[in-house]
Amino acid sequence: MYETSHIGTCNFPSPRLNFGPRWTASNAEEDFARSFAVDYDSRYAAIHPGSSKMCRVLAHEVPVNGFGIADLVTVSWNTGAANPLNLPAAWNELHAQPTVRAFEVKLSDWRRGLMQAHRYNYFADTAILVLPTAKLPTVLNLDTFKNIRVGLWGYDETTGKIIKIYTPRPKRPVRPNHREKAIERVLAVINQAPSSS
């Protein structure tokens, strides 16, 4: 069983390569997303109090065909379950009871982020949009987030503080078969690079 978590990055042909050097370089939003992942991972128990699913793996830039590229996907499972990383996905479903959370991270355009995060409900148990804490007041209608089951969190990169405005309870995704593909993709990333961040 994992006592610590692991953060990996999916290696796939990024669509940004089609737009030239300006878009292929690391950017502020990508750096913000990576910083969020590290702080989310380090504060995981405090963010999810009472959860028995403390074992987890995280992966950046996870593509799921037809539903976009999530900035961060976490797969967490019951701490009493054996290490599922070398076992088939069917085992994960039956014994580890994993929860899949997909995050979209935006620096400013919350409407675009909301639309992107909503697509993650097709493969994730929970979809969450993360904005800089200073941008939270610009979100005009929290009811929209609730109606389409997309969480809204704020993140302060300088302090590492994460604020949960709204978090939907995990629910089986619209396309469970894509959930299994997302789990397999995250676990494959972790198997390739057991401890990168």
Largest sheet: 7 strands, mixed
Low-confidence residue ranges: none
CATH class: Alpha Beta
Query: Which strand order do you get reading across the main beta sheet?
Result: 1-2-3-4-5-6-7
Describe the overall structure.
The protein is of the alpha/beta class. The protein has one domain (6-192): Trna Endonuclease, Chain: A, domain 1 (3-Layer(aba) Sandwich), CATH 3.40.1350. Helices cover 32% and strands 25% of the residues. The protein has helices at 21-24, 28-42, 44-47, 89-96, 110-119, 142-147, 176-192; strands at 6-9, 55-63, 69-77, 99-105, 126-132, 150-156, 161-166. The protein has a seven-stranded mixed β-sheet, with helices on both faces. The longest helix is centred in the C-terminal third of the chain and has 17 residues, at 176-192. The protein is globular. The model has no long low-confidence stretch (mean pLDDT 81).
Question: What's the topology here?
Answer:
Layout: E1 6-9, H1 21-24, H2 28-42, H3 44-47, E2 55-63, E3 69-77, H4 89-96, E4 99-105, H5 110-119, E5 126-132, H6 142-147, E6 150-156, E7 161-166, H7 176-192
Parallel strand pairs: 1-2, 4-5, 5-6
Antiparallel strand pairs: 2-3, 3-4, 6-7
Write a brief structural summary:
With 197 residues, the protein is of the alpha/beta class. It has helices spanning 21-24, 28-42, 44-47, 89-96, 110-119, 142-147, 176-192, and strands spanning 6-9, 55-63, 69-77, 99-105, 126-132, 150-156, 161-166. It has a single domain, classed as Trna Endonuclease, Chain: A, domain 1 (3-Layer(aba) Sandwich), CATH 3.40.1350.
